[in-house]
Structures are given as structure tokens and as C-alpha cells.
Specification:
This protein is α/β, with parallel strands linked by helices. It has helices at 39-53, 76-79, 87-101, 122-128, 156-164, 166-175, 181-187, 199-211, 215-225, 233-248, 251-262; strands spanning 8-11, 14-20, 23-28, 60-65, 69-71, 111-115, 118-120, 132-136, 140-142, 178-180, 192-194. A seven-stranded mixed β-sheet has the order 1-2-3-4-6-8-11, with helices on both faces. Helix 4 (122-128) crosses helix 5 and helix 9 runs antiparallel to helix 10 (233-248).
Amino acid sequence: MSPHLDQTRSFEHLRLERPADGVARLVLDNPAQRNAMSDQMTASWVAAIDELAADRSVRVVVVTGEGTAFCSGGNTGWIASEPDAEVDYLRTRMMSFYRAWLSIRKLEVPTIAAVNGHAIGAGLCLALACDIRYAADGAKLGAPFVKLGMNPGMAATYLLPNVVGEANARELLLTGRTVEAEEARQLGLVTRTFAADEFAERVGEIATGIAATAPIASRYTKVALRDGGHQDFESCVQWEALAQPVTLATADLQEGIAAARDKRAPVFRGV
């Protein structure tokens, strides 16, 4: 059993839980503000991501929200707090905010956004920065930047087209409308939806299943698929011709083959 199992570490406006071997769960924990991205939460997020990036026992990371919302986005009071500030100052400020929250993309293990409730604006971008997204029935997702009088931020104009395609991204960003969980699934914004009363359990089962796969193969697969995958067919073939032999040389490969032959669950050690 992992020494981290069943441990919970509390940061300000954020919890880091270890519900199962190899599984880390980041819970945005500011429900009174619908998990808006406060300064405190932002600092906590950076510290937690750095901790997870250095922890080789982590095999999958789940991001979710406490209460009825996933994340309502950036704090609008913070965004509008300096109307007379110079553009260059504001640009520096926003770049720091973007890089803090998008730091989840540096993790080489699979990441899951468990969208338990509303994911709005920068909150949607956080979900888009994860590898896989699931939504609970009743959740709403949207990027209403233009309705607030601002250009989209936090890589929305890159991440959204990458997930739902250019045509759907244009429609969502230019109208600023929100979509409910089922339409989000139809658009490809989330992969699957689950009933709210079983949502955490179902996502937990999926995360545990991912954590049980061979971690070296999982990492290489994630890297290969990053940012839309390979530039062209030949790049894909060249990458796989190197990456697959790397995994063929691991003890985990021998374990996986033996487990399949013996009709048992494999026990991968990441070597």
C-alpha cells in the first residue's frame, strides 16, 4: 500500500487527497465563492502541482470542486480592481495567473477534470487543460468572456478548438453561451456524463483503473497525444518506433504479458 494512501493535505482553498494507490485528487475548496480562483487558491495550486510533479508514486491526478461548482473562474473583483492600470502591467499580471493554473499541463501522468458542477470562464479552461473530462448531470460549462467585455484568456482560444474543433469553439466563444452536461458531451467538451449522486464514485473507479496501468507506457502515451498529437503521419511512426521499444525493455512489459497469459490482473511497478 502506498504511504500516501488515505492522506489528505490541506492548502488554503485547496485540498490534496490520496484516495487510492497512485491516485491524487485536487479539490478546489472555496465553495462560498463557487471555487473562484482566489489569490490563496492560486498559490496553493502552484505548490500542489509542484509536489505532484516530483512524486513518482502518482499515476493519475483528478481535479474537482467542493460543493455545487467545479470552478466559477477568475475572481471578477480582482479582474476589475485596477481600471487605471497600464496594459503592460496587466499583461504581466495575467501571464502569471495563466501560467500558475495551466501548470497542470506539465504533469506527465494522465489528468482528469471531474466537472461536478458549473465550470465557467477560466474554470472551463482548467478543465480543458486536463487530458480527460467527465461531467455530472446538471453541470454547466461555458466561456462567457465576451459577455463580460473581455477577450478570452487562459489559453481558451487554443484549448477549446483543440478539444471541440474550430467551428464549435468559434460558436461557444463568440456567443459566450453555456451548455449543459449532455450537450457538452455531444460537442466533445466532456467524454461522458454521470448522475450526480454517483459521479465521484464513477470517476474514482476510472482513475483507479488508469492508476493500475503501466505507468511508463501511460506517460509516453500522454506525451505523444499532447497538443493534438503528432505533426504528421511520419512523425507518429518515428516516435512510436522509439517509444514502443522503450516500453518493451521494461519489467512491466514482462509482467503485463505474464498476467495476460495467467488471466490475472497485472501489478505494474514502473520499471
